[in-house]
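Methods — Computational structure assignment.
A single polypeptide chain was analysed. Its primary sequence is given first, followed by the predicted tertiary structure written as structure tokens.
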Amino acid sequence: MTKIAVLGGGQIGEALVSGLVNAGYDAADIVVTNRRSERSEELKSAYGVSVTSDNAAAIDGAEYIFACVKPYAIEELLEGLDIPKTAVVVSMAAGLTLETLEKAAGEGVPVVRVMPNTPMLVGKGMCTCAGGSHVTEEQQAGVVKLLEAVGEVAVIEEKHIDAATALAGSAPAYYFLVTEALIDAGVQLGLTRDVAEKLATRTAQGAGTMLAESGKDPVALRAGVTSPGGTTAAALRELEESGLRGAFFRAAEACTQRAQELA
């Protein structure tokens, strides 16, 4: 029996709750907080979890406390609670360092900083996490196990978490933009938008599955599609000459720099 408090029933909070319940965690052991009673009832009805608007009541007896509110609200949230040292605080908000989180949570409280991404909404998330100075190996492993209910997890040093934001936290938007551009290109070539959207989105889904499950790296997969002197080779040459690779380097650097500025 693992007692879990989820503070904040928004998109990320609901995705976590959904994943945990679907993974077999007892809904009776999960408490979700939300300011709006209507939203609380929605979550209770959908997942069978306990709900309340009282954060202090929610963390009573909890082993893991997931803070799923907006980054600007995290410090005030944690500072307003009397968190026992036996509970692990897991921040799901971007841009807050472990030092800041530990100070807000209280002296000696174990804190884990997590950078989630939106595919966790469909159980395909890629979360990165870094443990604070008071987190034991057992507690870290417990957090990883819980997060695996919504996808994959990578444990990294905090100094790398901004780079991880560029490669995972923000990265879904890059893939969405590429797909959007392909759809527009298809329309320009004469396809109807619904056909272009189906072709581009299903191809993205299939390519993603191959990346994740084929056991081959991206270079090998790309080579497998590229016949000498063929159509794919012509398209890839245009992308390379247009600076696509360099654009991703610069985008990742910009994302990392902005994450550092926000910390």
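Note: The radius of gyration is 21 Å.
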